[in-house]
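SEQUENCE AND FOLD
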Amino acid sequence: MDSSAHKSHHAPRAGNKKDKKDKGKGKSHDKGFNEKAFAPKSGRNADRQGRRKAEKDQTRLHVPLVDRTPDDEPPPVIVAIVGPPGVGKTTLVKSLVKRYTKTSLTEAKGPITVVTGKKRRLTFMECNNDLNSMVDVGKVADLVLLMIDASLGFEMETFEFLNVLQAHGFPKVIGVLTHLDLIKKVAIQRETKKRLKKRFWTEIYQGAKLFYLSGILNGRYPDQEILNLSRFVSVMKFRPLVFRNSHPYMLADRLEDLTPRELIRTNPNTDRSVTIYGYLRGTNMKQSTKVHVPGAGDLDIKSITRLTDPCPLPTAESEKRRKLSDKQKLIHAPMSDVGGVMYDKDAVYINVPGNFTRADGEDEVPRGEGEQMVIDLQDVNTTLADGIARSSIKLFESSSQPLSLHPSGSDFSEDEGEDDGDHDESLTGSDLDLKEGDDDEESDDDVFRPGPSSGGRRTMRQSRGTTRFMPSNNESGKGEYIAYADSDSELELDGEDEGNDPQAHWQQDDEALDLDDEVDDDEDEDEDEIPAALRWKSDLAGRALSTYKQHAGRRRNRDLVKLIYNSSLTPEEISRGESSPSSSKINSRGDDDDFFTLKTSSVPSSSSAPSSIDQAKEPAPFNAVDWDDEDVLDSFRHLFITGNSGAQDLDAADGIDDDGNGFVDLEASGETGANVEPQNEKTLEEEREAALTRKKEDLKRKFDEQYDDPDEDGEKMDFYEEKKDEMARQLRLNREEFVGVDEETRALVEGHRPGAYVRIELENVPCELIQHFNPTNPIIVGGLLPAEERFGFVQVRIKRHRWFARTLKTNDPLIFSLGWRRFQTMPVYSLDDHSIRMRMLKYTPEHMHCYATFYGPVSLPNTGFCAFNSLDGTTAAFRVSATGVVLDIDRSSKIVKKLKLTGVPYKIFKNTAFIRDMFNSQLEVAKFEGATIRTVSGIRGQIKKALPKPEGSFRATFEDKVLMSDLIFLRGWYPIQPRKYYNPVTSLLVEGGNWQGMRLTGQVRREQGVKTPLEINSAYRAVDRPSRRFNALKVPRKLQQALPYASKPKTLKAQLKQTYLQKRAVVLEPEEKKAITMLQQIRALRKDQVQRRKAKQGEKREEFKKKMAKIEAAKNEKRSEDRKE
């Protein structure tokens, strides 16, 4: 064997090969280059490909819907884990939480929110095996993980949940097969997967995603299988559903009871005040929105407040990275034991495993939230009562003394070095604060108590800045002090409001602490000691008022939105410029409501209250303006002209600077208002011309948009693209409307937006909601539209479910799940009778839609619903009885019931007859004059007039003469009104959720063992109807002669004498008799033989059936054993 190396390949440099390669270098091998490979071979195939492409484009299209989910902070996606009991739902939740947050959950209850990406959060919610929970979860879930036990197959709960989803808007559904490890043989496992996938595709759609979970390792599913599932969930896109896109709703992750404990102790069954926390979804929710909690009823929102997001999205720094760090993977699960803290309905439980003591040097050890709280409690050295006894309350940080019930005994805290005369260092406000927990010895040494002759101020000042106090070094040694300030605006003198009446007092526990600036004799002494450098600050209010009168500047615009939506002022008070409620409203509140109460003076002031926006300006009285003076009108005429140049020039003429903050020194510049007037007039003319030009441009643009073709220059868009573009443009306009508006004002106007974490306080909540609270049951707060708050008759299109065994009957109670509500009502079924009337049906038709009318909450048309006969979990049969959609809420449609009235003739004329036993009075006959009647034989007639006697008889005419034996009937229609019965399903208010509504009489009798009473008139009995005898038809002879032969009666007379064939006798020969006898014997033997053969074959057939039954039983047993393996 030759071990020499192979020669390297050399590219051809000349010849045909080189020419061939050079020729192919310039060609591009993009898709579509080879015409023969991609072009159809015939025109028929080309037409088929074109139609196929058009069909694919049309199937891709859907009805355009506006996605109201905010892009910046979208709410978490609700992922519901649904399945029968024992399928592994809790294990899947723990595995997914461990995958996203690396947190091990001991107990998974309630919603669990985790951060899964830079722009996505997921909320996992496990659904109970309860029909109420499945209905509620189906209304809010964005993604459903439908778990199926592969060893058992599809169960009844799975099909019920899928039908509930179809009625309430089908969200995304992913199937998850579990317990595949119980099937040992690979062939049987493969066959099971194929069979379940085919059935799953039949229920959802062809190609629905189905994941397989093989087994459990360390209490969780394998990491690789969970990783595949989590990746698929993280990239899913969700299309907005119609009902959720028009209603605000919230999935509560925490519930707290705010009712005072004393009130609960005195009356345990009192209505509660409850707060619910969660993320808003759907549309904006206002405080005035009426909400419905499924299972609890309609409730009113007392307040709604936006809170800090407990599970926020990553910040801008984390977006720069390609993935999230471990510290930023957050989880929020209040009802689970995350971090050792678990919230219940009335308490917070802290679970810290291990030792609770803190060892030295363990401060940096990371701990959970609950463990850290328990460890911090060990640092407390005093009890709560001691801390309250030693604490003090200050109105402001720089207050010199705390609040006290006895002002005469108030203390002033000073520095320890005051007695030594050391005043080199000034004392700050923080040095004077009295802290909680100070020892009694230290407080006794540090407190300075002024004597009775002290001339210091006895009332506290209201300070705006940090005021420093220094004890004076005078000969008397009194407790006087000098006030210093960092700036001129921080120091407030006592004589600013000299001569004015006191405006307000602060009151605490019926002991008033005067905070006014009323001047007394002691304060006059303080004013004499004010240095000359500070005397220019005296009478600042008077000089500011005179300056304001000289220069009437523009006042700041008040935020009317906040005044209207965020205050208790009436429109009249706002228009008058008031910023606080009247004194009668303030004094009407008791002292027990607020710690401090604002007291207004009983003496009326000369001027109205100043505005809360600008306290330095006083409103001018209305009567002081002479409205007939042209000069006065010209002074503010510029305010009603488009543009603000005139206002700016007027401000300059009045001495106001351009920025609106200061005044212009007119004397220094040498300008006067007269010099500015010509320029002002010129500016006004230019502004008017500019406004007119803008108006013309706007009109031209509107004209062009209306009459010009927008797609003339660019590419034309189809109807679908136009609708999408229009909705996107409208959504952009809606978002730009509130650009620059603060969150508080925006929430007042349009409500809280989706994605916000809010706290909703509900009042008058039934106490059973707190007493029977179960964190595994979902609590949904669904907002109601204004039209959905009222009740009326709703008309729907309904169809009995094909899997429901019994037929639905009119006026039988039925439980509807419509919108957010679940309620029991009594529907009346009907059918459209040729667009003439709505005819009542006693039972629902088989495999066909019909109409139903019931009394209940009004819902918008095209709202889907599903109905149940019972919500009992012990029912083995299929519980979804019907599905349908709301058609109309028009109350004018009447349902009529067929009514048959019968009567008999008692006198007959040629074509007229007198009828009785149909009506009871002449009035009833008068109502039915002109009505059509019929006989059983089909003769039509009409009611003419009532007869005086007998009562209720009438005269009628017919097409032909009727007989005395004929039965005459009248087919009429009787209006039916559905019963006003509405019973909401309050499953959250019942222990265990076993709500029971109204039952039928037969169900009550069956459960209580009562027999059905039998009435004599209701019992069936044999009807004895005598046979009718009709006379023979007699045709006169003259008429028979005139008739043709074919029409003449051909009846023969009965023959009286016997014929020859009847009279003759047949005599057999002996040989013939023997032959006939032998044939009869042979037939008898044959008959007996056939009977014995059939009996023997029957016995053999029974033995064969028994043998085959044994073989089939053995095969089934072997098949079940193979499946278990």
About this structure: The longest helix spans residues 1070-1124. The first strand starts at residue 77 and ends at 82. The CA atoms of residues 554 and 651 lie 8 Å apart. The chain has a mean pLDDT of 76.
